[in-house]
Specification:
Blueprint (H helix, E strand, L loop, with lengths): L10 E4 L3 H9 L1 H4 L2 E6 L2 E4 L4 H10 L20
Antiparallel strand pairs: 1-3, 2-3
């Protein structure tokens, strides 16, 4: 049975246009910080690379919005 999974501590880049994600993946200085592409609009990011990615996107003229997960009690269920 497939069950939903929640992965804590995962950083993502989410874009409106898939072409923008392709451009990000093609940039060698950004690609080293990227993980798996999760959809046409979303790619995983190594958390230690977030500040480098933000700086590079800003240098390219993008204004990334960085958000944190809401704090609070996260209920957990065991398999």
């Amino acid at each position: 049975m497939n069950r939903p999974k929640l992965h804590e501590g995962v950083a993502l880049i989410e874009v409106d246009e898939p072409l923008m994600l392709t451009e990000i993946e093609s940039d060698a200085s950004l690609a080293v910080h990227l993980g798996e592409r999760l959809s046409q609009h979303c790619v995983a990011v190594r958390p230690e690379g977030i500040s480098d990615i933000v700086k590079r996107l800003q240098a390219l003229g993008h204004m990334p919005r960085v958000t944190d997960a809401p704090s609070g009690d996260h209920s957990r269920t065991e398999p």
